[in-house]
Design brief:
This protein is of the alpha/beta class. The chain has one domain: Ribonuclease Z/Hydroxyacylglutathione hydrolase-like (Metallo-beta-lactamase, Chain A). It has 9 helices and 15 strands. The strands form 2 sheets. The chain has an 8-stranded mixed β-sheet with strand order 6-5-4-3-2-1-14-15, with helices on one face. It has a 7-stranded mixed β-sheet with strand order 7-8-9-10-11-12-13. It is globular and about 45 Å long.
Length: 289
C-alpha cells in the first residue's frame, strides 16, 4: 500500500492537508472555506466523496474556519479534542463529533491516524501521523519547540509536512511588536527555519524521501530562502515548499521493495495538467502572518 498527499494550503491564511490511499482519504485541518477546498481538490482531480474523516490539530482560525460547513455538507466525522471544540467555539452536529486520545490509533479503512501532544499556544494542540501499512506521513506544524514526541514520530516518517515558519533575522528586523515576536519564539509559537533544519539534520530517518516545508510566514520568511537552506542539507530527500496561496502537486509515497528487504521510501510526483483556474484570495487570517 502507499499514500497520496498534498497540501491544499499552508500558512496563517489557512491550512488543509489531504492524505489518502487508493480507497480512503482524510483531511488534517480545514482552514479554507468549503468552496475553495472543493476547487483546489478538483484542480488536482480529487473528490470530497473519497474523504472519510477530518482531524483537527487545534482551534486557531487558520485551521478550523471551513470546518463547520464542510463537515455538515459531507456529513464527515470530525476527530477533535474537547478542549479544541470548546476553544474554537465550534458548532458541529453532535453525531459527527469524535474524540481521540494521544498516542492511540484511529482506523479509517486501512489508514491509521495517530495523534500526539505538541507545544503550541492552544487548548489541547496535537500533531498527527497517517500510516498505511508500512508507509507513514507526518503533519507537523504550529510547534513551539521540537519536543520528544515530535522527534519520536518524525523518525518514523517516510515523508512529512514540517513547519518552517520564520527566519530569525527577518523576524528581528520586521514590523511585529516585541510582544508578538516574543510569543512566536517563546516555546509555544512556531518553529523557525533554524529549528526545523536542526530537527531535519539530526533526526531524519534514512527512509525519508520527501519533506514539505509548511506554514511559512508571509512577513518573516521567504520560500526561496528556506528552500536554499534545506537543499544544502537534503541529501536524497526531495524538498518542497508548500504554498500559502495554492495547492501543491500530489505526491505518491510508497515503500520500495528490493533485494529481499525494504529500501527507502520513494515519492513519485503525480503531475496534473494545469487548468489555469483562478485562485480565490483568502480573508481569514490568524495572529501569526
Amino acid at each position: 500500500m502507499s499514500l497520496y498527499i498534498t497540501s491544499l494550503n499552508s500558512g496563517s491564511n489557512g491550512n488543509c492537508y489531504y492524505l489518502a490511499n487508493e480507497e480512503d482519504a482524510v483531511l488534517v485541518d480545514v482552514g479554507l472555506n468549503c468552496r475553495e477546498t472543493e476547487k483546489r481538490m478538483a484542480r488536482l482531480g480529487l473528490s470530497m466523496n473519497k474523504v472519510r474523516a477530518i482531524f483537527i490539530s487545534h482551534e486557531h482560525s487558520d485551521h478550523i474556519s471551513g470546518l463547520p460547513v464542510i463537515a455538515r455538507k459531507y456529513q464527515l466525522p470530525v476527530y477533535i479534542t474537547p478542549g479544541t471544540l470548546t476553544g474554537g467555539r465550534l458548532t458541529l452536529q453532535e453525531e459527527l463529533v469524535r474524540t481521540f486520545n494521544a498516542h492511540e490509533c484511529v482506523h479509517i479503512g486501512e489508514l491509521v491516524i495517530t495523534a500526539f501532544p505538541k507545544l503550541h499556544d492552544a487548548s489541547e494542540p496535537h500533531s498527527f501521523i497517517v500510516s498505511c501499512r508500512e508507509v507513514t506521513v507526518g503533519v507537523f506544524t504550529d510547534i513551539g519547540f521540537p519536543c520528544e514526541n515530535l522527534i519520536k514520530y518524525f523518525k518514523r516518517c517516510h515523508a512529512a509536512f514540517l513547519e518552517a515558519n520564520y527566519d530569525d533575522d527577518m523576524l528581528d528586523r520586521g514590523r511585529y511588536p516585541y510582544f508578538l515576536k516574543k510569543r512566536i519564539r517563546g516555546g509555544y509559537g512556531h518553529l523557525s527555519n533554524k529549528q526545523a533544519l536542526e530537527l531535519f539534520k539530526t533526526c531524519r530517518p534514512p527512509h525519508m524521501s520527501h519533506l514539505l516545508l509548511s506554514h511559512l510566514s508571509r512577513d518573516n520568511n521567504s520560500p526561496d530562502l528556506v528552500l536554499e537552506l534545506f537543499r544544502s542539507s537534503a541529501g536524497d530527500t526531495e524538498i518542497v515548499v508548500a504554498s500559502r496561496d495554492c495547492e501543491t502537486n500530489i505526491y505518491h509515497i510508497k515503500a520500495v521493495q528490493g533485494k529481499g528487504m525494504r529500501e527507502h521510501a520513494r515519492v513519485e510526483e503525480v503531475r496534473i495538467p494545469a487548468l489555469n483556474l483562478p485562485v480565490a484570495e483568502h480573508v481569514q487570517y490568524s495572529l501569526f502572518q
